[in-house]
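Intended use. Records like the one below are meant for learning the mapping from a protein sequence to its folded structure. Do not use them to infer anything beyond what is encoded.
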Amino acid sequence: MKAFARYFLRGLVITTPVALTFWVVWWVVSTVDNFLPIGIPGAGIVVTVLTIALIGALASNLVTRGVVSGLDKLLARLPFVRLLYSSTKDLLNAFVGEQRRFNRPVRARFDEAGQVWTLGFVTAEGSDRLGMPGFVAVYVPQAYNFAGNLIILPGANVEPVDGDAAEMMAFIVSGGVSGSADRTSHK
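Structure written out for the chain above:
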């Protein structure tokens, strides 16, 4: 019975992420397909991806850049819409835009003895925005969540981490179980 329970739990660990991933992908494809009555399963995803790429190409064009800029200014001025629009735009730009901000992974020390550390990304130098010379803003993503905390601490308590920012984000968000912890160990 112990062997059966062990095999069951091992199988659960393998099948649950796979099943959940397939279910989410199926749900997204089905939802998009229902919006676009094309009749070919999965065609909605292709149409959506192509539409987004077309909008990106148009936004890069000198002629349509003014229209995009005008729409951007309009949405940035509307009450309530401004909050959602600006924060979504800033978050996407921080990850994949031309002004990426989550590209400086660091270890941040919380105590003088060097016993308590966290991983995050430097997003701003304190002397410019915060009026706190020598301090930096470090964004600390939360594990298994799409949220995080911004902490301000002395720049001397922050050390760069060698490695890819995307791998570091995956490591943090997964609670430290994704990827290798070798790069993030204290030297």
